[in-house]
Amino acid sequence: MLTPQDAGFLGSTTAKYINDIAPQLDGWFYPLDMMMFGMTEAFHRSLSLSGDIAEIGVWKGKSLALLAMIAPVKDQLYAMDLFGDDLLEQTQHNISRFVAPELASRIRYFKGNTADYSTDYLKTLFTNKLRVLHIDAGHEYHEVLHTLTLAAPFVQDYGIIIMDDYQDREFPGVPAATLDYCYETAQGRWVPFLVGANKMYLANPVYAKLFQLFLCNEAYFKDSFRLSRIKDSLVLIAQSKLPMKSTVIEQLVKNQLHAVATPTELETLTEKARSQSQTALEAEQAQQVP
């Protein structure tokens, strides 16, 4: 449970959700990712950025409730799911229990299979570009790749895409498809930059760096992150078991080099493996410590 002192940086709404509301809702949504949702909202507000929000894969609305509670009232929310059995009714009931009517009324519900989505369909759906896209739909490789390929182009340059169950051993297709989309389909237009409890956060490389610096500057998270790499992208591990000093991470992020061409020969890859290993990162860290 967050204490009032600890929760201050998130705002009273997010803190109340974490402490009081989330325990009453079914679903796999961990407090660390609840905090990262709150920080996503805070990051966009700090830059006066706006846009709509879509959640593809809702189940009973646990994360949808938080998104609805913290998003500015002008932002439209799209809740998209198969909604089999009575899940739509359960979701709407949960939203009505905990989300103020003026906020809940912005949510538009869409029942259907993501495999049937098309670009033309999404064009009729999203009246504005998205600021946040949370994907928790089909978890097999081609389902994930299909959803990302269709939906990501509807996200603003400064938007955040959140991939659920990225760390879940039951669903290896999620990380595989996410990375293939980022580095092959999208050619680095989106990159992984933040690891939560069970979610991976994607952003445009420029805004990924800005968000990382924003997180490192929050006192609550001081010296609690570790920096890792996926290909040429720097990735923050939230609440790491092997944390680094925030000042060192900030410096490394600021000094990040532009991505180089994808290596095609084993010798090149071997050299990159040496120069960009965890050992190399620790050596850089040691050099940065005053």
The ordered H/E elements are: HHHEHEHHEHEHEHEEHEEHHH
In the CATH hierarchy, the architecture is: 3-Layer(aba) Sandwich
Radius of gyration: 19 Å
Number of DSSP strand runs: 9
Name the CATH superfamily classification.
Vaccinia Virus protein VP39
Shape: globular
Proportion of residues in helical segments: 40-55%
Indicate the structural class: alpha/beta
Largest sheet: 9 strands, mixed
InterPro entries: SAM-dependent_MTases_sf (IPR029063)
Pfam families: Methyltransf_24 (PF13578)
Protein name: Class I SAM-dependent methyltransferase
Organism: Rheinheimera soli
Structural account:
By secondary structure, the chain is an alpha/beta fold. It has one domain (4-221): Rossmann fold (3-Layer(aba) Sandwich). It is 44% helix and 18% strand. It contains 13 helices and 9 strands. It has helices spanning 4-7, 12-21, 31-46, 62-70, 87-98, 101-104, 119-125, 141-151, 173-185, 205-216, 246-254, 266-275, 278-288; strands at 52-56, 77-81, 107-111, 130-135, 155-164, 191-195, 199-203, 226-230, 233-237. A hairpin with a 3-residue loop joins strand 6 and strand 7 (199-203). Helix 8 (141-151) packs across helix 9 (173-185). The longest helix has 16 residues, at 31-46.
Features:
290 residues; alpha/beta; Rossmann fold; SAM-dependent_MTases_sf; Class I SAM-dependent methyltransferase
